[in-house]
From TrEMBL:
<dbReference type="InterPro" id="IPR029068">
    <property type="entry name" value="Glyas_Bleomycin-R_OHBP_Dase"/>
</dbReference>
<dbReference type="InterPro" id="IPR004360">
    <property type="entry name" value="Glyas_Fos-R_dOase_dom"/>
</dbReference>
<dbReference type="Pfam" id="PF00903">
    <property type="entry name" value="Glyoxalase"/>
</dbReference>
<dbReference type="InterPro" id="IPR037523">
    <property type="entry name" value="VOC_core"/>
</dbReference>
<dbReference type="GO" id="GO:0016740">
    <property type="term" value="F:transferase activity"/>
</dbReference>
<feature type="domain" description="VOC">
    <location>
        <begin position="12"/>
        <end position="163"/>
    </location>
</feature>
<keyword id="KW-0808">Transferase</keyword>
<protein>
    <submittedName>
        <fullName>Metallothiol transferase FosB</fullName>
        <ecNumber>2.5.1.-</ecNumber>
    </submittedName>
</protein>
<dbReference type="InterPro" id="IPR050383">
    <property type="entry name" value="GlyoxalaseI/FosfomycinResist"/>
</dbReference>
């Protein structure tokens, strides 16, 4: 699953930086529930906060800031209010919508069961395809990724996903939307 970048030799995601309310709770979830090793911790200068890094495999990390002056979470603005299976997908322009971790296809169902056994609310399995609904009940030749969603203790939307086929030129077939196509909500 790779295409050649003619401009830069990018080697994946070094880290994705998120913000948490409670670093101890974040460590408990990411190391205890998801098994990610905590690989680097640091205190930020002038008492601004902390920055901790978790190994999420393949040389990639997920990092968290704990910032002394962070505003409270803003579900529906800074992140989705809930999971896509609950009808929640919207988040603001410039927000981080969700983090999808690549998992082995042969472990996919077991990983979902294990999270449920940990008491984590998980979405149904979604077999993403190009149908009008975007998902199907069963895997078929048009299914390109299987996934399920869950949230961390701060409401960060997470996904375990596994590719099911290689992409072809036919997979890039949609006209890009512009800012003029948006349905901007006004008022409250």
């Amino acid at each position: 699953m790779s295409a050649t970048n003619p401009k830069f030799e990018l080697r994946g995601i070094n880290h994705l930086a998120l913000v948490c309310a409670d670093m101890r709770r974040t460590i408990d979830f990411y190391t205890g529930v998801l098994g990610m090793p905590l690989v680097k911790t640091l205190d930020l200068p002038a008492g601004l906060g902390q920055h901790f890094f978790f190994d999420c495999g393949g040389g990639n990390t997920v990092a968290f800031f704990w910032l002394a002056d962070s505003p409270d979470a803003a579900p529906g603005i800074a992140a989705p209010k809930g999971r896509p299976d609950e009808g929640e997908l919207a988040s603001a322009v410039g927000s981080m919508n969700h983090v999808a971790f690549a998992v082995p296809p042969e472990q996919f169902d077991d990983y979902r069961s294990r999270l449920k056994a940990e008491g984590i609310a998980v979405s149904p399995v979604l077999n993403h395809d190009d149908s009008p609904a975007g998902v199907s009940r069963h895997v078929h030749p048009g299914t390109f990724v299987r996934s399920f969603y869950f949230q961390d203790p701060d409401g960060v939307l997470l996904e375990f996903a596994c590719w099911t086929r290689e992409f072809t030129d036919a997979d890039v077939a949609h006209e890009p939307k512009t800012a003029a196509d948006r349905r901007v909500r006004t008022g409250s």
